[in-house]
Design a protein that fits this description.
The complex is a heterodimer of chains A (about 170) and B (about 650).
Chain A: E1 5-8, H1 18-27, E2 37-46, E3 49-57, H2 66-70, E4 76-78, E5 85-87, H3 97-101, E6 108-110, E7 115-117, H4 123-127, H5 133-137, E8 143-146, H6 153-163
Antiparallel strand pairs in A: 1-8, 2-3, 4-5, 6-7
Chain B: E1 25-26, H1 32-35, H2 43-51, H3 55-63, H4 69-75, H5 79-83, H6 95-109, E2 125-129, H7 133-145, E3 148-152, H8 161-164, H9 173-184, E4 189-191, H10 202-207, E5 210-215, E6 221-222, E7 236-238, H11 239-247, E8 257-261, H12 265-277, E9 281-285, H13 297-305, E10 309-311, E11 314-322, E12 325-339, E13 345-349, E14 355-358, E15 361-364, E16 368-369, E17 403-405, H14 408-411, H15 416-435, E18 448-449, E19 456-457, H16 458-463, H17 474-479, H18 490-498, H19 511-519, E20 527-530, E21 534-537, H20 552-556, E22 562-567, E23 570-575, E24 578-587, E25 594-597, H21 598-608, H22 621-632
Parallel strand pairs in B: 2-3, 2-5, 3-4, 5-17, 7-15, 8-9, 8-15, 9-10, 19-24
Antiparallel strand pairs in B: 1-18, 6-16, 11-12, 12-13, 12-14, 20-21, 22-23, 23-24, 24-25
Classes of the chains: A alpha+beta (about 170), B alpha/beta (about 650).
The complex binds flavin-adenine dinucleotide and iron/sulfur cluster (5 copies).
């Protein structure tokens, strides 16, 4: 896991997909690809009321990212200082090994350029001291940008555990 | 780039190289056959059309560059075939005979050639002197551009050496006449029995209103043997005069025993003609060895089959006779010394090696030059050392601005297709001259319609063998002027067409090889250097056993030659229309999509050293997301969840 993470308060999320839209706009993502995705789970009846959960699925910027191990060109990189995983598009040859490798379905195919692109936590914004576009655009403040300063190691561990349920990697 | 891409190119495709349909044209061809055709015919395109049985369209493509598909289909020495890339796999395509087949299908079974309509009509008149392939081609392109063209011919029938030189057993006259008729049908006027340059000068034609001239007078003056006795006997004749007489009906054998001096096409054609006229003993006397003979290879073989003997390394020295009749040709033996300026080794006579060959006639065929000195009425034309007309090479203009020239008159004895190329270049230059446009400085690549390739699997394609061209039987050959080579029939032609590797699409830039080997580290796609400076796919015969089907090569290919297609459970990799690999696809357990090749999954598994169970469930990237989201909240994945893009 990177130094950062995006925490989603599922109780607040209404599935409006403003996060997806802001991400697409900011990152110029064409139809067919999405760096983050809201996956609806349900509706399921709970205490007599039908409930639906909306799960926010960005890239999780794994500790030992398989996408990076699979990449033959070094285009897929993990930034050492903060662990953000991103693609250097000048190196990518579009072999899609990373897409096959990632258990989360995160790397996306850009048909127009014949290369892979993906969620990089909007690192340009982060480096400017801003928050990722999805977080900024969230209408109900369900998404929270958690940077090292505000995250206790305990909280981070809990989050990591949660997202890795059923996942073979961390 | 246009919307309807003929070959959906990968993202690396470069608009300058890509085959696109915006105007249906690709600017430049990378096919070595086309690049080496003196007329610049778009060979791969017409071959593909023949493969589909679309003969009319094939002929239309050929006639964009060459008005004589039939003639060239029969007697072109096909420099294109010598460059055909397929020869590095097995043998070159039968390019010449494919052209002949298309012409025959259109002329004999179809509706004949389409007569092109000029877009414009100009008032200027242009005079073409000489009706050989050079002159008639110039006339054809000038008429097409919209000029009024008159062709002046000295002989009683137009066609030049196609009518009066190349023997009928190689080029039936009927075929030539029909192709000339197609040029007349465009409104070109041909005036026969009218030599220009002695009684009628160019100035006189200028006075009659002709604004530009093309000289295609050929090279008709036979070089002298320069030996004792040459001028003393009427049985010493020049090959061209002899062949002309035979062509115009004087089918009389020169003698029972004939010696022909020379090693080119004219020599061999004269010899083979003597055989057909009934001469019992026909010999070729040549200074160098058989392998240095400039005549076409097939002709040398066929000549030997017909019983013609070659005296190699033999230099004639004297013609001896009595009572006005030749008895002997005296010859010297020769050895080969240092190479001369033509790169061929120079023969030197061995003194004291004289011997006498009993002959009744001697035919000189040691070369020709233009008879330019016979025509003072052409004005003061710059000549070369070989007494050919000097022109600027890309526009065929002589030192007199309104006079252009081409064909044998410029090159010296050459080929029909070179004459056609010269005539064509001159026609475009004359147009520029008359319209006051910039004169062509290079021969610009002709924009061309790109014909989609015939899709075929690599192993099928590589195992089709070059078709053999059937010949009529030897006895008939030796006793008649019937056409010797029968050409391809329709079935053979269609098979032959499938052998073409479409070198016009892939430019052999090697980027695919580089990415697969150096970046991906797989080295599945490989080329090998084939002679000169060009590359050919190495695994045409075996496919690409190491390929993981990743598509990186397709992404980088600048021309769109490489393509991927997923169909029927397979990923198909195509190069220039040839299926070079088929790889099994994995099916997503969530949505049923076929999303990745099976080998790719194994390849990645190895790279990341993942626990085995990690890839047990086969999911596409979208279904992976869904699956993980459900598992994060402890639910069983439901892949029927609505997917919004
Ligand atoms: C025996 C032989 C076999 C050959 N075989 C082949 C072959 O298999 N394949 C191949 O590609 N090439 C072959 N060639 C070469 C080919 O025929 C010539 O290169 C080609 O015909 C040259 O075309 P041209 O138009 O320049 O001249 P030509 O075909 O020679 O035509 C010139 C014309 O100009 C006319 N003319 C000349 N002076 C005047 C004047 N003052 N006024 C009016 N008209 C005039 C002539 O009568 C003639 O009709 C062969 C040549 C010979 C001799
Ligand atoms: S793309 Fe996939 S494997 Fe790579 S860091 Fe993101 S979640 Fe991990
Ligand atoms: S598609 Fe690009 S980023 Fe992904 S593995 Fe291949 S080269 Fe690396
Ligand atoms: S294989 Fe086809 S395109 Fe290539 S050189 Fe031969 S004829 Fe031309
Ligand atoms: S698709 Fe095959 S040939 Fe092309 S780069 Fe990938 S492994 Fe190499
Ligand atoms: S060599 Fe490879 S990359 Fe280059 S044009 Fe041919 S197929 Fe495309």
């Amino acid at each position: 896991m990177s130094e950062y993470y995006i925490y989603q308060d599922q109780k607040r999320c209404i599935g409006c997909r403003a996060c997806e839209v802001h991400c697409k706009t900011k990152n110029d993502v064409p139809v067919g690809a999405s760096f983050c995705k809201i996956i609806p789970v349900g509706p399921k009846v709970q205490d007599g009321i039908p409930r639906i959960k909306f799960i926010f699925m960005p890239c999780f910027h794994c500790e030992t990212p398989w996408c990076v191990s699979a990449c033959p060109t070094g285009a897929m990189q993990r930034r050492t200082e903060d662990g953000i995983v991103s693609v250097d598009k000048s190196l990518c040859i579009g072999c899609k090994a990373c897409i096959t490798a990632c258990p989360w379905g995160s790397p996306q195919w850009n048909k127009e350029t014949g290369r892979v692109f993906k969620c990089d936590y909007c690192k340009d914004r982060i480096d400017e001291g801003l928050e990722p576009a999805c977080v900024t655009g969230c209408t109900t403040a369900a998404l929270k940008w958690v940077s090292p300063s505000e995250s206790s190691s305990l909280k981070r561990e809990k989050f990591a555990k949660k997202i890795t349920q059923g996942a073979p990697t961390s | 780039m246009g919307k309807n891409l003929l070959f959906p190119p990968g993202p690396g495709a470069d608009p300058l190289h890509i085959v696109y349909e915006e105007d249906g044209l690709k600017r430049e061809s990378s096919a070595p056959c086309q690049l080496n055709c003196p007329a610049g015919i778009d060979i791969p395109s017409y071959i593909a059309l023949i493969g589909r049985g679309e003969y009319d369209k094939a002929i239309a493509i050929i006639r964009n560059d060459n008005p004589f598909p039939w003639v060239c289909g029969l007697i072109c020495p096909n420099p294109c075939e010598q460059w055909c890339q397929r020869r590095y796999l097995d043998k070159a395509l039968c390019i010449k005979d494919l052209k002949g087949l298309a012409a025959r299908m259109v002329m004999e079974k179809g509706t004949g050639y389409l007569i092109p309509e000029p877009k414009e009509r100009y008032s200027e008149k242009v005079a073409v002197i000489g009706s050989g392939p050079a002159g008639l081609t110039a006339a054809y392109f000038l008429a097409w551009q919209g000029y009024r063209v008159t062709v002046f011919e000295a002989m009683p029938e137009p066609g030049g050496l196609m009518i009066a030189g190349i023997p009928e057993f190689r080029l039936p006259r009927d075929f030539v006449r029909r192709e000339i008729q197609a040029i007349r049908d465009m409104g070109v006027e041909i005036v026969v029995n009218t030599p220009i340059g002695d009684e009628v000068s160019l100035d006189e034609l200028r006075n009659q209103g002709y604004k530009a001239f093309f000289l295609g007078i050929g090279a008709w003056e036979g070089l002298r043997l320069g030996i004792e006795g040459e001028n003393d006997y009427p049985q010493v004749i020049s090959a061209l005069e002899f062949l002309k007489d035979v062509s115009f009906g004087k089918k009389i054998k020169p003698a029972n025993s004939v010696a022909i001096v020379g090693g080119g096409n004219a020599a061999i054609d004269a010899a083979r003609t003597c055989v057909r006229l009934g001469s019992q003993s026909v010999s070729i006397v040549y200074r160098r060895t058989r392998s240095e003979m400039p005549a076409h290879f097939e002709e040398i073989i066929q000549m030997a089959e017909e019983g013609i003997h070659v005296h190699q390394l033999t230099i004639p020295s004297k013609i001896l006779g009595s009572y006005g009749k030749i008895d002997f040709l005296e010859c010297l033996m020769a050895t080969l010394g240092e190479p001369d300026e033509s790169g061929r080794r120079r023969p030197t006579a061995v003194s004291g090696s004289e011997y006498k060959m009993p002959v009744g006639a001697v035919i000189g065929a040691i070369g020709q030059k233009p008879a330019i000195r016979r025509y003072p009425g052409f004005g003061y034309l710059d000549l070369t050392r070989r007494e050919t007309i000097r022109v600027r090479s890309h526009n065929q203009q002589t030192n007199v601005p309104d006079v252009f020239a081409g064909g044998d008159a410029v090159t010296g004895p050459a080929t029909v297709v070179e004459a056609i190329g010269g005539g064509k270049r001159a026609a475009f230059a004359i147009h520029a001259f008359l319209r006051d446009l910039k004169m062509p400085e290079i021969v610009p690549p002709r924009p061309r319609t790109m014909i989609p390739p015939i899709v075929l699997d690599y192993h099928k394609k590589s195992f089709i063998q070059r078709q053999e061209i059937p010949l009529i039987d030897l006895d008939r050959r030796m006793h008649s002027f019937d056409r010797v080579e029968l050409g391809l029939d329709e079935i053979a032609g269609r098979e032959e067409a499938k052998r073409c590797m479409r070198c016009d699409i892939c430019e052999r830039c090697g980027k695919c090889v580089e990415v697969c080997r150096d970046r991906l580290g797989v080295s599945a796609i490989r080329f090998f250097h084939s002679g000169e400076s060009s590359l050919i796919l190495k695994d045409y015969v075996h496919g690409l056993p190491k390929c993981i089907g990743c598509g990186s090569c397709v992404n980088i290919c600048p021309t769109g030659a490489l393509q991927l297609e997923d169909r029927d459970g397979e990923r198909v990799l195509l190069m220039s229309g040839t299926v070079i690999n088929r790889i099994k696809l994995e099916t997503c357990e969530g949505c049923g999509a076929q999303y990745v090749t099976k080998v790719m999954v194994r390849h990645v598994e190895k790279l990341i050293e993942a626990p085995e169970e990690a890839f047990e469930q086969k999911l596409c990237q979208d279904c992976k997301r869904i699956s993980k989201a459900f598992k994060m909240v402890g639910e069983t994945p439901d892949f029927s969840v609505q997917r919004i893009q």
